[in-house]
Amino acid sequence: MTDYRKLIDAETWAFIEKTNSYYPPDTIGYTIAEQRWIYDRMCREFFAGYPQGVTAETTAIATPTNSIPIRIYRNAEPDKAAMVLYVHGGGFILGGLESHDDVCAELCARTGYDVVSVDYRLAPEHLHPVAFDDVMDAYEWTAGTYDCPVVLCGDSAGGNLCAAVSHATRGHKKKPVGQVLIYPSLGGDRSRGSYVTHAEAPMLTVRDIEFYLNIRTGRVDRTGDITLSPLADANFAYLPPTVLITAQCDPLSSDGEAYRDRVVAADGHAYWFEEPGLVHGYLRARHMVGRARSSFTRIVEAVSALGRGDWIW
Q1: Alpha-carbon gap, residue 168 to 234, rounded angstroms
Q2: Which of 59, 85, 203, 206 has the most CB atoms within 10 Å of its CB?
Q3: To the nearest 10°, the Cα dihedral for 136, 157, 288, 256?
Q4: DSSP string spanning 215-244?
Q5: Is-catalytic flag, 191?
Q6: Alpha-carbon distance 15 to 98, whole Å?
Q7: At CA 257, angle to CA 132 and CA 215, rounded to 5?
Q8: Of the residues 128, 250, 255, 295, which is catalytic?
Q9: Of the residues 194, 229, 280, 295, which is catalytic?
Q10: Is the pTM of this model over 0.90?
Q11: What confidence tens digit (pLDDT) does each residue in 165-198 have?
């Protein structure tokens, strides 16, 4: 058993306890509607507001089959070198434009780039590959609307969807210029690495991961589907430069390492950094935990550098 009392500092424990007071670990036993209500309430409690100079416009992308809500964040002093398509986490069943509203606003303020947040459809009402299709449509819209390069950025489930889009757009006339994947779920080997050593980590367990996967797929076996599990791809060539930032105390951390290794083996650019002592979902802790604050700065710097076309790692 991993001794988290030694790995996790007091600030991070305070964050975990605050999170659990709004979103207790046994919440996966609730109905989906109850889980969404609890998650949304928890996100509101951590909401940090907008930095000065950032404005947001909520609109939608019209597709032949549906309308995809998006929120566009703009800085009073914009940097037109690139823009960011942000894809939120939430296990493919939770979250939306509100859950990561302040994260996107801060990313916009600190990079200067426009940020487009996409409200993809959620399971179980919309099973895989609907979320992937929505993010692909959002990417096509973004690439066609903005003259500048596009950086993909997403956390957890959103990191999964960003990676899947990167794999799917390698032949695109305007493929992503880079991707920043924050504690992403990429479909790694659950018999080894962090899936074993951190199977019962605070904030996310292997049981939680299996629950979300079953909801997302409707319990259909989709082994080998790279739009579901990017690590199932046999070809990691021609992917955009990738920065993976994971949490040490998270069963998903090994996914970042495995993805880095496969991109590098295919002569691509990828950098993986495991944040010591942090837990899944720590983006919400960036204003109360020093380690999370430092990690968010690392994320901002990665997005900024990739947008400029710099590979500094």
Answers
A1: 13
A2: 85
A3: -100
A4: HHHTT---TT-TTT-GGG-S--TTPPPEEE
A5: no
A6: 20
A7: 35
A8: 250
A9: 280
A10: yes
A11: 999 999 999 999 999 999 999 999 999 999 999 9
